[in-house]
Amino acid sequence: MSDENQKPESYSMEETFERGLFASRWLMAPMYLGLVFALAMLTFIFCRELIYYMPQVVTMSSDKSILVVLTLIDLTLAANLLLIVLFSGYENFVSKMDISDEDDKPDWMGTVDFSGLKMKLIASIVAISAIHLLKRFMEIGVPEADEIYGNNELMWFVIIHMSFVFSGIILAGMDWISANAKIRMKEAMKK
C-alpha cells in the first residue's frame, strides 16, 4: 500500500474518534435534566414554606417575618443559581438552545461564557451565604436558636462566608488578568 492510501484511513479513524469525543458532551444532558428536577424540588419547598407561614402572618412578630422572607429569598436565589447553571452550562458545554420566542428569552442567555458563569455562580453563592448569615445574626438571643448556634458556630459561619467572598475576589482578579493578557496579545499581534 502506498502512503496515499494510508492517510485517508488514519484520517478517517481520527475523525471518527474526534466525532465520538464531541458527541460525548450529550452525556451531560441527563445531569441538566436532573437540575430541572432539583428546581421542581426547590419550588415545592418554597410553596410548602409559604403555605406553612401564611396562617401565621397575623400573629407573627416583625423579626420572625423578616426571617421568613429571608428564607424565601434564600430559596429563590438558590433556584436562580440552578437556572444559571442549567441554561449557561447546557449552552456552553452541550448545545445551543433554539428558542423560538426571543421576546421571552432572558437577555443573558447565550451570552454567558464560562468566565461569566463562574462569576455569576460565586456571586450567587456569596448572596446565599450572606442571607444565611444574616438569618443567624437575627436569631442571636433567641433561646431556641442559641441552643443550636452558639458563638463557635457563628464564628465558622463568618469564616466560611468570608472564604466565599475572598474566592470571588480571587476569581474576579484571575479573570481580569486573563482578559488583560488577551487584550495585550491582540495588540501585539496587530503590530
Automatic annotation (TrEMBL):
Major subcellular site: membrane
Top-level taxon of the source organism: Bacteria
Membrane topology of this protein: Multi-pass membrane protein
Keyword Methyltransferase tagged: no
Cell compartments where the protein resides: Cell membrane
InterPro entries: UPF0114, UPF0114_bac
Residue stretches spanning the membrane: 26-46, 66-87, 154-177
Keyword annotations of the record: Cell membrane, Membrane, Transmembrane, Transmembrane helix
Similarity section: Belongs to the UPF0114 family.
Protein name as annotated: UPF0114 protein L0664_01305
Organism: Octadecabacter dasysiphoniae
